[in-house]
Amino acid sequence: MSRSLRWLAVALVATTATIAIAQTxxxxxxxxxxxxxxxxxxxEADVKMWMAPEDVPMSSQAVETNEMLGDYxxxxxxxxxxxxxxxxxxxxxxxxxxxxxxxxxxxxTMTPYLTTTEGDYDVETHTLTMMGASxxxxxxxxxxxxxxxxxxxxxxxVMTMYGPVPDEDGQWWKMMEITYKRKK
Length: 184
What we know:
This protein is α+β, with helices and mostly antiparallel strands. The protein has a single domain, classed as Lipocalin (Beta Barrel), CATH 2.40.128.20. The chain has 2 helices and 10 strands. It has a 10-stranded antiparallel beta barrel with strand order 1-2-3-4-5-6-7-8-9-10. A hairpin with a 2-residue loop joins β8 and β9. The longest helix has 22 residues. The termini are far apart. The relative contact order is 0.14.
C-alpha cells in the first residue's frame, strides 16, 4: 500500500471514530462547557488601558462577538481602536476535561505573538482566572499575564488583565480593564 493510501486510510478511520464518538455522546459537554457557552452573543465594551502603572488610562469603545464552535469551543472576535489605530483580536477558549482547566489562545493586529492561557473558574465568586504566556512585543522575551473575568450577571462582565511588576516576584499591575454589557 502506498504512503498516500495509508494516510487516507488513517484519516478515514480517525474521521469515522470522531463521528461515532459524537453520535454516541462519549464526550458530552461538561458544566464548564455550558458555563463558557453563556458568553455567546455580542458585547459592547468600555476599554481602559494603562501603558505603565502610574499612567492615566486610555479609554476606548469596542465590540466583542462570541460564537460557540459546537459544544466545546468559544470563538471570540474583538474589534475596536487603540491609540487611534484599528484593533482586531481573535481568541479561542475551551475546557480540557482531562486537565480540568480552561484553555485558550489569543492573537491580534498589534503583535506577532500568540498568547496561550490556562485557568480555573471559581463558582463562588463567578470569576474565571487565566494565566497567560506570550512574548513581550518590546523585548521578544517570554512573559506572563493574569486575566480575570468577573461575571456580574448574565448580561455584564468585567475582564481585567494584569502584567508582572518588574523585579517584584509575584506582584501584578493592572494593564487593562474592559467592562462588557451584552448588546440586546
